[in-house]
Write a structure and sequence with these properties.
There is one protein chain. The protein is α+β, with helices and mostly antiparallel strands. It contains four helices and 15 strands. The strands form four sheets. It has a five-stranded mixed β-sheet, with no helix packed on it. A five-stranded mixed β-sheet has the order 9-10-15-14-12. Strands 8-11-13 form a three-stranded antiparallel β-sheet, with no helix packed on it.
């Protein structure tokens, strides 16, 4: 009996060795490199270092993500750190993977956000598993966010052009099945002037996995073009314009008939009759 027990214990120990070695060798994904537009990292970047300093090329312009390199399978998400006055003071980069996440902080060293400005424009809006159309620009305030058919949580982040402005953006928006909604993001300039942006959330006929593959391959045009043409704003505006024009034409013709004076007397006989 003792021999049987000893044999069983030895077998368990032998079986546990490969699993222990496998667990030891398995490592979490790491952020190998990262760079930003309008900013340079002061320190040498390392995957094991999590706090850095950013020097802005233009102290009043908000920096945005330019490029990154990840070792392993993971998603990256960028948000902005704010002080009590809601000035942007840094960038928070979150590397998310299957078993956890890693957070890197990049603090601004020379941001000029105390000078009053009327700049209340958005510079960038990002949505995890979402495609924004058209691209954020200085003219448009109405946008569409295309999301997968099965998405249940909308993760958003926004950056303003002016580092002293801020945008009220919900980090997470819970969605019920098949729900489509309309979000309003308000940008407040450092002098208090505001600008409202509208984002209509539309589901497309793609699963999260299919959607993610298209985004990572850069084929986001497929997502936008897959929307039926008669659902697009341009088509609806054109259709409405044609309908209004036809209605005005009918009204004009009707009014013209009423005002037209008859040149003939219906009771008068023809001269040569």
């Amino acid at each position: 009996m003792k021999k049987l027990v000893c044999t069983f214990i030895v077998a368990l120990l032998l079986l546990s060795v490969p699993f222990s070695a496998l667990a030891k060798d398995a490592k979490a994904p790491q952020l190998k490199a990262i760079s930003f537009k309008n900013a340079k990292i002061v320190e040498q970047f390392s995957p094991e270092k999590y706090d850095y300093t950013l020097v802005l090329d233009e102290p009043k312009d908000t920096p945005t993500l330019e490029s990154y390199e990840v070792d392993g399978k993971a998603d990256i998400f960028v948000t902005y750190a704010l002080d009590e006055a809601k000035h942007q003071t840094g960038i928070i980069v979150t590397l998310e993977f299957e078993n956890g996440s890693t957070i890197y902080n990049f603090a601004f060293s020379n941001a000029e956000f105390f000078e009053q400005s009327s700049n209340n424009l958005l510079k960038e809006v990002t949505c995890r598993l979402g495609v924004i159309y058209p691209a954020i620009n200085a003219e448009d305030t109405d946008y569409t966010i295309y999301i997968p058919q099965d998405l249940t949580v909308l993760d958003l982040s926004a950056a303003t052009q002016d580092v002293g402005a801020y945008c009220d953006v919900p980090k997470e928006v819970a969605l019920s099945a098949d729900q489509e909604l309309e979000l309003t993001l308000t940008v407040t300039a450092s002098n208090g002037e505001t600008r409202a942006y509208t984002f209509k959330v539309k589901r497309c006929e793609k699963s999260s996995k299919e959607f993610d593959a298209l985004v990572k391959s850069g084929n986001t045009d497929i997502i936008v073009k897959s929307e039926r043409f008669y659902q697009k704003p341009a088509f609806l505006i054109a259709t409405l314009s044609v309908c209004v024009a036809l209605l005005l034409l009918i009204m004009f013709i009707s009014l013209a008939k009423r005002l037209t004076i008859s040149l003939e007397d219906e009771d008068e006989q023809e001269f040569f009759e």
